[in-house]
């Protein structure tokens, strides 16, 4: 399997420039920085990979672009595809689980996409998308298992290295923490970082209740967890049942390790963000801070740590609950 190259990533940087922004690196405390991907136009890093894949389709096969694109997603990739499709002038169809957060469903529809619902299993979403693609001639834009998507997500890692250097810090004494679900962001970030700074540590973080990536990484064999297990976590964006094949190959080559966090640790990280900063994390975006706060024993020591806040599309009801707790002094 051919892995994504630095040239692929540099091309992606140019290709996504009309849509994706260079998100800020925010200092949270001494030695802790946050890469704030919630600052993207759709509130998530997913725009990087989705836009790169669809813009590349526009270059390679304009007729396919005109027929439309389809994807399967619990929310953030759905918005990325919908946003990119609208910007590039094509139709988007999104297969979403019935239990997707309302805020993500509404945002996807507001971007002009057609939404089709299936059950909670990520495998069911993929099968439905393949069925509709075959019937209507749509091009599938995978949420993670695609070289162009990986190259797009890799631009996040390249930006981190640039921003750390601009801050006068040494990238060689750095630990980067990325959420991991299907593996798009982790595989891309690790690839971009390691190709430029091999001594920088890149680790993944995921919920204990959806730890298929940890098991796969530790065993060296790709495993799949049942949907009944992964859907238990509050981190709806990390409920994928298995890493993508292409992502797994990149992760085995470039990632240094993966740690897991509990649901309570995710909640604590979210409360910290909301109580002490202006950043708004969705649960999936808070797992990296949870790992930095609670799993230091399982992580390598580094002068600086960058946690990727992968998305900020927090359900309004959940945010209100956290803010009520904060006002009552129960943080």
Automatic annotation (TrEMBL):
Q: Which InterPro entries match?
A: Ser/Thr_Dehydratase, TrpB-like_PALP, TrpB-like_PALP_sf
A GO biological process of this protein is: L-serine catabolic process
Q: Cytoplasm: present as a keyword of the record?
A: no
Which prosthetic group or cofactor does it need? pyridoxal 5'-phosphate
Q: Which UniProt keywords apply?
A: Lyase, Pyridoxal phosphate
Q: Has the keyword NADP been applied to this entry?
A: no
The UniProt entry's coiled-coil ranges are none
Do you know which Pfam families this protein is assigned to?
PALP
Where does the Tryptophan synthase beta chain-like PALP domain lie?
18-311
PANTHER family on file: L-THREONINE DEHYDRATASE CATABOLIC TDCB, THREONINE DEHYDRATASE, MITOCHONDRIAL-RELATED
Record-stated family: Belongs to the serine/threonine dehydratase family.
Protein name, per record? Threonine dehydratase, catabolic
Organism of provenance: Granulicella sibirica
């Amino acid at each position: 399997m051919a892995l994504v190259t630095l040239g692929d990533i540099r091309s992606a940087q140019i290709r996504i420039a009309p849509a994706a922004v260079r998100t800020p690196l925010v200092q949270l405390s001494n030695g802790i920085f946050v890469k704030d991907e919630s600052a993207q136009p759709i509130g998530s890093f997913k725009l990087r990979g989705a836009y790169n894949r669809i813009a590349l389709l526009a270059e390679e096969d304009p007729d396919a672009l005109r027929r439309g694109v389809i994807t399967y997603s619990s929310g953030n990739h759905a918005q990325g595809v919908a946003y990119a499709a609208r910007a590039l002038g094509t139709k988007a169809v999104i297969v979403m689980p019935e239990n997707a957060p309302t805020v993500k469903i509404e945002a996807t529809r507001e971007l002009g996409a057609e939404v089709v619902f299936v059950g909670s299993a990520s495998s069911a979403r993929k099968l439905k998308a393949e069925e509709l693609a075959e019937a209507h001639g749509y091009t599938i834009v995978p949420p993670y298992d695609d070289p162009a998507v990986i190259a797009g997500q890799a631009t996040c890692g390249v930006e981190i290295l640039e921003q750390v250097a601009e801050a006068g810090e040494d990238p060689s004494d750095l630990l980067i923490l990325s959420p991991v679900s299907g593996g798009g962001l982790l595989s891309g970030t690790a690839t971009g970082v390691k190709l430029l700074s091999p001594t920088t540590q890149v680790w993944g973080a995921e919920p204990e209740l959806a730890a298929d990536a940890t098991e796969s990484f530790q065993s060296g064999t790709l495993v799949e967890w049942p949907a009944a297990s992964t859907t238990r976590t509050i981190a709806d964006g990390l409920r994928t049942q298995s890493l993508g094949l292409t992502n797994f190959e990149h992760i085995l080559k470039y990632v240094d390790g993966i740690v897991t966090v509990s649901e309570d640790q995710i909640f604590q990280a979210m409360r910290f963000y909301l109580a002490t900063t202006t950043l708004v994390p969705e649960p999936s975006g808070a797992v990296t801070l949870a790992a930095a706060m609670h799993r230091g024993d399982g992580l390598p020591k580094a002068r600086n740590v960058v946690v990727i806040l992968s998305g900020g599309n927090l359900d309004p009801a959940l945010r209100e609950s956290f803010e009520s707790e904060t006002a009552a002094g129960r943080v």
